[in-house]
Fold this protein.
Amino acid sequence: MKSEMLIACTTFSPISRTSLLMEPEWQEGQAHYPIPIDDFRFTVLNANEALPMQTRSAEIVLVMTGSATLTHPAGDTLTLQTGQSAFIPAATQNWTLTNTGTLCRAYS
């Protein structure tokens, strides 16, 4: 029954491969992807030094290349290498990002 409902809500028509790729909107050297959902954002950040960040909800960061250091004003730091990720609770609020490569950030 559930699979029948899914099939009924799905359009089975071919589309070109290039239409599947989403182009980012660039702001201040960051690639923001226009995800069509209000409570989800996805950004790719390239190398930077001491970029102030604000957390309004839980976030996940993933280091794609290089390394990243996350620093909280209380003095806590976390360094991540390529392939490593971190969960950042909403209570973190303000933190600083320093990265040497490419980092992905999923947040709302």
Observations:
- The chain has a mean pLDDT of 91.
- The first strand starts at residue 25 and ends at 27.
- The helical segments are 2-8.
- The chain is about 5% helix and 50% strand.
